């Protein structure tokens, strides 16, 4: 999906550009709990020499993993219908402005 949005030839897990990682941090991890998740994972996961002990998702509880799955679904669906990176960013900004009011209706 990122290859499509960045208009890159197909990549594999061994030859992806570093900016894909920045994209994942910005649009997948940082929005979860308004950045708390990302900052906590950075604390747990980064060694003194700036290397990582494990992949981020390996530190998550079952609840954290379900939140990550939800966020991945949101981003993947936006990537699917966005023709380019600028349109994706516009769609994300629009989506972030939406709120859900759970108390809007009485229990039906």
From TrEMBL:
Residues 11-67 form the Bacteriophage Mx8 p63 C-terminal domain. InterPro entries: Phage_Mx8_p63_C (IPR018874). It holds the Pfam family P63C. This is Bacteriophage Mx8 p63 C-terminal domain-containing protein. It comes from Sulfurospirillum diekertiae.
